[in-house]
Every structure is written in C-alpha cells, then in structure tokens.
Amino acid sequence: MASRDIIVGLDLGTTKVTTIIAEVDDQGAQLIGLGHCESQGMQRGVVINIEKTVEAIKESVLQAERMAGLQVESVIAGIAGDHIHSMNSKGVIAISRRNVKDRTGEITQADVDRVVEAAKAVNLPMDREVLHVLPQEFAVDDQKHIKDPIGMAGVRLEADVHIITGQVALAQNIYRCVERAGMRVRDLVLEPLASSYSVISEDERDIGVGLLDMGGGTSDIAVFHEGSIRMTSVIGLGGENVTRDLSIGLRTPFDQAERIKLAHGHCYLPNVERQEEVEIPGIGGRPPTRVSRQQIAEFIQPRMEELFELAMAEMRKANVWEMLNGGIVLTGGASEIEGAAELAQEIFELPVKVGQPTGLGGLMETARSPIYATGVGLVLYGLEGRDPFLAMEGADESTVFRKILRRMRAWFEDFF
Ligand SMILES: Nc1ncnc2c1ncn2[C@@H]1O[C@H](COP(=O)(O)OP(=O)(O)OP(=O)(O)O)[C@@H](O)[C@H]1O
Ligand SMILES: [Mg+2]
Question: What fold characterizes domain 84-166?
C-alpha cells in the first residue's frame, strides 16, 4: 500500500460531476483536492451519454488531481436511488408433509422458504435483479396477519413480501464510464446513503431523521431510525424544474432563468423584500425588463411546495413519518435557495435545517456547500469501511459486481 492512503469520492449528478480527494492519516481524513465540472451526460441518476459523462469525469478528476498533486487510481462512485425500486408481492403454496387423516400439515422452515421463493417469482424486466426479499406477513388458510407461521397447521400458506430490485445495467454504465476515464471503481454507493454520512449526525440517525437531497433532476429521500436506514425513495423533481418554471414565468431562456434563480431566487414569500427589483435582459433585441423579487418568488414557491409535499406523502405512505423525531435535513444544490428551510418547516411542521457537509478536515469554504454533500459523504463512507474496498483493488468486473450486489443487499438487511 502507498505511504499515504487516499480516498476519492466521485459524485455523478444530473447537473455536475464532483470529485473529492481525501488523504487519510491517524487523525482522520483531510480534503486535499476538489473538482467540479458541469455535466450533461446524466439524467436523473442515469447515464444517457457515455462520451459526455466520461469527459466530465476526466475534467472533474483532473481539477482535483491538480489541486492534490497526485494521480487518482480508484474512486468510490455514487449511484442514484432512482433505479432501485421496491414492490409488494404475494406467494402461495400447498403445505408439505400432510397428515393423511385430516389432510393438514405442520409448517416448517422449508415451507416458509418455499413460499418466499414463490413470492419472489415476479415478472422483472431482463435487466433488473432482485436485491432483497423481505417477508412482511403470512396467512395460513383463512387466518391472516401471522408474523411467524412455523409450527402452525394448515393446508395453504401465503406470504406477503417486499421486494427491492435494481437495474444492474445502469450500475454497469457508471462503472464503465469511470473505467473509460482511466480509473477503477472501488465501490458504488447509493447516493442518499452517501450524503447522510456528511450531513447527518449519529444522534440524529438514532432518534430518527429524514434526509431530503434536492438535486437537479431528482430529490432523494432517506429515513434513518435507531441507527439504520429505514426507507429510501426518489421523487422526480429538483432544481431544474424550478428553473424551468421561472423561465416560462419570466419568458426568458433556461440559462438566464438559472442565473436569476441563483442570484435572486427565494422560495418563501413572507420573507421576501417586496420592493427590491431585478433587471432581466431582453431577448431577441428587446429592451430589458424589471421584475420584483416577490414576482420571482411567486414562480418558485409553488414548485418547492410541491416537492416538499411529495416528499412528505412518500414518507407517510411508507409509514416512516412517525420516526422523524429529529426532523428533516435538507441538502443538495436545490436546498440552497433562500427560504428553503422556512418553507419546508411550514409544510412538514417539523424542525428543518439545511445540512452542510462536515466530517472532513481541511474542508475549504467552497466545499461546505450542500452541493458537495454526496461527494464528501462518499469519502466518509469509504473511510468507515476501508478494509473491504481495498481488497477489491485489481478484481475483475464480475467479482466487483458480485461484491457490490452483496453490499446493496446488506443496506436493506435491517429495513422495516
Ligand atoms: N445557490 C443556489 N440557489 C438555488 N439553487 C441552487 C443553488 N446552487 C445550486 N442550485 C440548484 O441545485 C441544482 C443542482 O443541485 P445538485 O448539484 O445537488 O444536483 P445534482 O447532484 O447534479 O443532481 P441529481 O442529484 O439530481 O442527480 C440545480 O438545479 C441548481 O440550480
Ligand atoms: Mg446529487
């Protein structure tokens, strides 16, 4: 092993690729390199253009390498939760080892395994794989809501299960892009899980907290309680939707609307300086116009409200709302808009804060933005579980994949 240990986090977002290089010593990890490059090769966490993604990775990594004065060999890459789906399914079997007289049988572990296997037999597209199957409850003949049916007598056993699937090809695309950019993938980590490492404290994880990572194309939800991840979900709204609304509202191109949003955007009307005016350059030779910040906020607030309401509905649907004793932590670029915490607090009726990434020494001011929550979190994730990753160096693609799938299963081990 090299004299100094290096961990690199690579966040492939919808809008940008960021690289965080950290040097590890006895004291912990120090940030020594940061790269940030706009990207158009990804959409909602999925590679849509390999060339563009590879170019953005190269550029982002090169920036970070120059700052750190070293060459990156391997990275821990983020993978969006977007393609990790969960669904409910049912299995039914006839109970074996029947008693000849009354034709019933006693349920054994083998029966339970069989019925779970039957429930797993769902029609999945070719490119999906089952990552985990979680039995919820059983029914024996007409008796429902049984948690543990072993030892009971009956003819028919039914199981309700929760199945988590992932699209392996999408993970493979991320893997290939990194390889084509000349590096190895040490691991792929679910992005909201990575972000949680940099913006959520252990106390919060224990008492229960919801993380909402508001990106460009999507917003990821992750709920933690009693130290474990309890739920993850993705909603298809992010900062780009806000910009699009503003672009339509102000009748100005997307890029212009983005600039206005970053400089003057606000999403909580009660706190907006009403009179303050902003100049909007005219398009196609038209003269510039002036709008008030209040008008700008009027275009932004409804979309932000929708995003928070959808997130709340998802968490309620998954029965995790009652776990949020520690409230909600917002992160990701779209959480940086002024008024985000205030608006969210009003909608959630829970304490809300915007989480800036922490946990790495030497974090310069620029890296303290929620935009870097995932990148910094990937490094911290790598720091916690360093040994297994290092063992993967030099492994071939299929070995790495088997390991990654096993790890993904492990994330959901103590779900529910
Ligand atoms: N200061 C700011 N104020 C308002 N919005 C901002 C600010 N900075 C960034 N954003 C918005 O954040 C979004 C990008 O966030 P982020 O970098 O977290 O996304 P991403 O990781 O590229 O995307 P995703 O996670 O969806 O794949 C953009 O829509 C951008 O407009
Ligand atoms: Mg992101």
Answer: Dna Ligase; domain 1 (3.30.1490)
